[in-house]
Structures are given as C-alpha cells and as structure tokens.
Amino acid sequence: MKKIETNYKTTVEFYDLDPMNVVWHGNYIRYLEAARCDMLEKIGYTYEDMRKENNAYPVAKMELKFIKSATFKQRLNVKTTLQELEPALIIKYEITDEETGKKLFQAQSMQIRVNIETGETIYNASESFLKKIEEYKE
Questions:
Q1: 119 φψ region: left (φ > 0), alpha (ψ -120 to 50), beta (else)
Q2: How far apart are CA 98 and CA 18, in angstroms?
Q3: What percentage of residues in the chain have a pLDDT greater than 90?
Q4: Nearest to 129 by CA among 83, 80, 85
Q5: Beta-ladder partners of 64
Q6: Which CATH superfamily groups domain 4-135?
Q7: Beta strand pairing call for 121-122 and 113-115
Q8: Is 33 helix (H, G, I), strand (E, B) or coil?
Q9: What does the pLDDT look like over 21-63, one tens digit per residue?
Q10: Among residues 2, 4, 122, 126, which one has the fewest Cβ atoms lying within 10 Å of its Cβ?
Q11: What is the DSSP track for 63-112?
Q12: What is the Cα–Cα distance from 96 to 80, expressed in whole angstroms?
C-alpha cells in the first residue's frame, strides 16, 4: 500500500480553551477529525463517497498522547499518515506548533469498515477506495 501523508493547518480559537486557558483535551479529537476529513478529501474518497457505497468507517479505537498544551491563537499543523487500509483503516496523527515544529500531541485511530444497512464488519477496503489510494499524487 502506498504511504500517504497530508498536512492540515488550524488555529486555536478562544472557544477551544478550558478554564486553565489551554486547549481542552476533547478538542484535540476535533482537530484529528478535521485533519482526517481533509486527508480523505485530498485522496478523493470522502465520507460521502463511502455512504454512496453503503460503507461507514466508525472509529473502533483511539490512542492519544498529550505532550504539551496548545494555547490561544497558536497555529497548529496536523500531520496525518495513512498506515493501513486492511483489515482496518489506521491513521497516525502528529500535532505540532506550525512556527517552531515542536510536537504537542500524537495519536492513532483505527476505523473498521461496516455495511451501513446490516452493520456487518468488512475487513477489506472497497475497490474504489483502493483505486483512489493508487491514483493519489502529492
């Protein structure tokens, strides 16, 4: 499988902060979700494309490592790396400060393909997803 890496940029907004004036821990997952959607868009196989094929990729597992808190107006880069497609979609994430490159957070998600109508687990990627991966150009 072709290794795919993409970068997604975001800025920490006031509403992302907790009472300690750092990013509330749950918002990191929102950053990951935005970066994952961005990567799928760049590949050309979005959640809407999945739905048209009667597929869903719900998150089955996430591993999170908080390294250093992000702060108000900090510019972040979220690097996503597609690790595996089969038997599950596995993506690694790394959030860094855009200016300094210092690592703030890292994570990995595992998503399992399921048939939307039946809920049946499917342990291989669809042909159209595999084709988009092979056609992908950085």
A1: left
A2: 21
A3: 96
A4: 85
A5: 107
A6: Hotdog Thioesterase (3.10.129.10)
A7: antiparallel
A8: helix
A9: 999 999 999 999 999 999 999 999 999 999 999 999 999 999 9
A10: 2
A11: EEEE-S--BTT-EEEEEEEEEE-SSSEEEEEEEEETTT--EEEEEEEEE-
A12: 12
Q: The tokens 């869903």 sit on which residue?
A: 56
Q: Hey, CA dihedral for 22, 39, 34, 27, is it positive or negative?
A: negative
Work out the number of other CB atoms within 10 angstroms of the CB of residue 73.
9
Query: How much is the average pLDDT of 81-97?
Result: 97
3-state secondary structure of 35: helix
Q: Which residues on neighbouring strands pair with residue 71, listed in sequence order?
A: 22
- Three-state DSSP class for 9? strand
Q: Which residue has the tokens 């979700």?
A: 33
Task: Tell me which residue has tokens 């597992």.
Answer: 61
CA-CA distance, 17 to 26, in Å (whole number)?
A: 10
Distance from C-alpha of 38 to C-alpha of 12, rounded to nearest angstrom: 17
Short-list 106, 63, 104, 113, CA closest to 84: 113
The pLDDT tens digits of the residues spanning 7-24 come to 999 999 999 999 999 999
